[in-house]
Putative tetR family transcriptional regulator (Streptomyces lividans 1326), 440 residues
Amino acid sequence: MTDSTDSTEPAVGAPERRPGGRTARVRAQVLDAVRAELAEAGHEGLTVEGVAARAGVHRTTVYRRWRDVGGLLVDVIAAAGEMDWQPPDTGSLRGDLTALNREIQESLVVRPSFAVALMAASFHSEQAARAQTRLWADRYAQCEILVERAVARGELPVRGARGATELDARSLLIAATAPVYHQVVLLRADPDPRLPERAAAAAVLAAAAGAFSVPRTEGA
Amino acid sequence: MTDSTDSTEPAVGAPERRPGGRTARVRAQVLDAVRAELAEAGHEGLTVEGVAARAGVHRTTVYRRWRDVGGLLVDVIAAAGEMDWQPPDTGSLRGDLTALNREIQESLVVRPSFAVALMAASFHSEQAARAQTRLWADRYAQCEILVERAVARGELPVRGARGATELDARSLLIAATAPVYHQVVLLRADPDPRLPERAAAAAVLAAAAGAFSVPRTEGA
């Protein structure tokens, strides 16, 4: 699944010609430049001129295709969604969530952090915020397979027949991952190498105790 | 406990003369103006001139006492820490954490949100970020009493004697509250009125299952 498949509005500047051609090459150069500028100077430092200069393309090319800084932000977030990202598959829910949290923590503590720069940008650009919300929604949807696999392996309680329940996979995933964002991004704590596993383990224990069980919906 | 008691550096512009006097009055007017400007225009819209005009004080007064926008942000955060805030006391850990989460969600979804404006500012001002980190640390420290009371009531497992454990109160509090920030601030989901209670209940279940138990430290 990619970010763009179920998106209702096409990303600004999405290449319309054959992939691998000049259009795709220019887009790759420009988006690389956006990522580098964002990581170095943050959202306030992002300008169409700076991106064009770094990408080595004419600024009218950037204006024509991406229009403005908002268009560049939307497209760089869309490109993150198009990446062939796969959720971890370690054989246990706790292992999967730990691996996911390690990946998240790594993306947040690396300096400069593109992920943190995007979050900062989303406080100031409505366009970037919407694109980012779509990306988050897609990533969490992709991760629901972790919970489905755990249920299939019998790791989590799902009652059958009358009083049937199912797991609210998204709430479980948010419970597992939110502490990592909270500690690193909002509390700005020093990254704790044990946090990814601890947050994962706590969510699994809560899930095993029924914290994310909801009545089964009709037809599910 | 207030934000300033154990702070090693005094807040910029903290009143040095008797409380309730002109100094305190001017500070109150200026900080009210900072909050209003922040909520309306965000961090980028904050200027010493705008704050002075809204507060009805001369801008040299603001420059002399707060120096710049960073100083104003630090002092408005310090003032939040000086508020006589008390953690909830409902008689159960689940009730306390639910009440805490409701208060948090309310502060984040109200428009304009001073809390969200401060978070946005902390991405861009190192001074504001440090002041905010201190405020968060103090608020979580204040809330540890919720966990202590729950242990005293026998709601949570603490093994005695050999193999003694104690609860990592802060990790429990973060697990309970992080999903609310995550959903509202980072995922920008529509506020879910059930989320405060669900996130609280999940953290309590995880705690009851031993998720936040750590070996007791010497002398604790």
Notes: Chain A has nine helices and two strands. The CA atoms of residues 77 and 124 of chain A lie 15 Å apart. Chain A touches chain B at residues 42, 44, 116, 119-120, 122-124, 129, 133, 136-137, 171, 174-175, 177-179, 181-183, 185-188, 198-199, 201-203, 205-206, 208-212 (CB under 8 Å).
